[in-house]
Design brief:
Elements: H1 11-21, H2 30-43, E1 47-51, H3 54-64, E2 72-75, H4 82-89, E3 93-96, H5 108-114, E4 119-123, H6 134-144, E5 147-151, E6 159-162, E7 165-168, E8 177-181, E9 194-198, H7 201-211, E10 215-216, H8 225-228, E11 244-245, H9 256-266, H10 269-287, E12 293-294, E13 302-303, E14 309-313, H11 315-318, H12 322-331, H13 347-352, H14 361-369, E15 370-373, H15 381-394
Parallel strand pairs: 2-3, 2-4, 4-5, 5-8
Antiparallel strand pairs: 1-9, 6-7, 6-13, 8-9, 10-11, 12-14, 14-15
Helix pairs in contact: 1-9, 2-9, 3-4, 3-7, 10-15
The chain binds pyridoxal-5'-phosphate.
């Protein structure tokens, strides 16, 4: 079976994890700091905060951004539900903007049309690994005083050009925070895992606080001085048992076991992305001339991390329904998927929260034709060829 995506774990990854298992720290030890520093350095951001998963990372990013009751946040419907759920966790409302038909990313012009006095933030999602138009989105945010949280769960290792310079996703050059996921189908894995990157020290400190119950052990931040300090030791030497809870936080920590795996995987990220890009170009070469099939377009100013390879297939013209195509491919051992069902069509949003009227024309045109075919770095050339031949055979082309 060739799935649509999967991880790649080697002996050196296993060795790194076993070393931690034999050490003094399973969690809250030195590997977390090491992983955070390596990730921040790779992306070119000042700070990274390791979080238990991508969804929790989005949640904390929204909390740190101050999203609250009655706030609106603009995002895309072509994403995993977590990109919208994080807004609702904070009491806010997602507002869905349409995508552009070239990259399938949120369309900046559509973002503009959705801004109201209640809008507080924008969550662009770098769909399939292609960076959004961050310069334009940043302009909009600046004009309306909005926070930008990049959902970069598809885009670790992606780059875009700004002012003639290549900028890495995660550098937060055009945003306040960037969120990654390390789920096994993503570019690197820690089993479950995620991270938030930022260049803003205030946001960084807020995120650290919220990740661990809202508790601080930093004596300089203590509010209840009488409880914190005793005369025996003088100021700024707190009582040894003492800590303070300053906000309603969570336990959203990542373990040292996971961070060791993340560090080992991060060493291979460039190799993984390069392999993804090679497979994508093999696919594009094979499918580009087929009638009623459209291959992904990578704009010249963007370097996709190719989390997904999404074909747009005119199933009607081909004369075979999507479910038939998926089933036939499944029967020959090839897993495909549809990324994504527009979030506003989910019953929770559509019916319960009344999003049935917030429909997006381009989104629905895209959704009707979308099919993701297998793409992961461990795929062999033989497997890639099998996918190409099977898809062509199935579509009768
Ligand atoms: C995977 C993913 C998430 C959630 O990440 P988890 O680590 O699975 O919680 C959020 N947004 C997008 C776009 C994703 O692909």
């Amino acid at each position: 079976m060739i799935p649509y995506g999967r991880h790649w774990i080697d002996d050196d990854d296993i060795k790194a994890v076993v070393e931690v298992l034999k050490s003094d720290w399973l969690t809250q030890g030195p590997k977390i700091d090491e992983f955070e520093k390596a990730l921040a350095e790779y992306c070119g951001a000042k700070y990274a905060v390791a979080i238990s998963n991508g969804t929790a990372a989005l949640h904390l990013a929204c909390l740190a951004a101050g999203i609250k009751e009655k706030d609106e946040v603009v995002t895309t419907p072509i994403t995993f539900v977590a990109s919208a759920n994080c807004i609702v966790y904070c009491g806010g409302s997602p507002v869905f903007a349409d995508i552009d038909m070239v990259t399938y990313n949120i369309d900046p012009a559509e973002i503009k049309s959705k801004i109201t006095p209640k809008t507080q933030a924008i969550i662009p999602v770098h769909f399939a690994g292609i960076p959004c138009d961050m310069e334009e989105i940043k302009e909009i945010a600046k004009k309306h005083d909005l926070i930008i949280i990049e959902d970069a769960c598809h885009a670790l290792g992606a780059e875009y050009q700004a002012n003639g310079e290549w900028v890495k996703i995660g550098s937060c050059r055009h945003s306040d925070m960037t969120v990654f996921s390390f789920h096994p189908v993503k570019h690197i894995t820690t089993g479950e895992g995620g991270a938030i990157l930022t260049n803003n020290q205030q946001l960084y400190e807020k995120l650290l606080l919220l990740r661990t119950h809202g508790i601080t052990k930093n004596a300089q931040k203590f509010v209840n001085k009488n409880m914190a300090f005793s005369n025996d030791f003088g100021p700024l030497r707190a009582n040894p048992w003492y800590y303070e809870m300053h906000a309603l936080g969570f336990n959203y920590r990542l373990t040292d076991i996971q961070c060791a795996l993340g560090l080992s995987q991060l060493n291979k990220l460039d190799k993984f992305v390069a392999r993804r890009r090679t497979i994508a170009s093999m696919y594009s070469e094979a499918f580009k001339k087929i009638e009623y099939v459209k291959t992904p377009i990578e704009p010249e100013t963007k370097k996709s991390a190719y989390h997904l390879y999404v074909l747009q297939i005119d199933f009607e013209k081909i004369g075979k329904s999507r479910v038939r195509v998926m089933t036939e491919l499944m029967e020959v051992g090839i897993g495909t998927q549809v990324h994504y069902i527009p979030v506003y069509m989910q019953p929770y949003y559509g019916n319960e929260r009344n999003y049935n009227k917030q429909r997006c024309a381009v989104v629905e045109q895209y959704y009707g034709k979308a099919l993701s075919i297998p793409l992961y770095p461990k795929m062999t050339d033989v497997e890639v060829t099998k996918v190409i031949n099977s898809v062509k055979g199935c579509l009768n082309v």
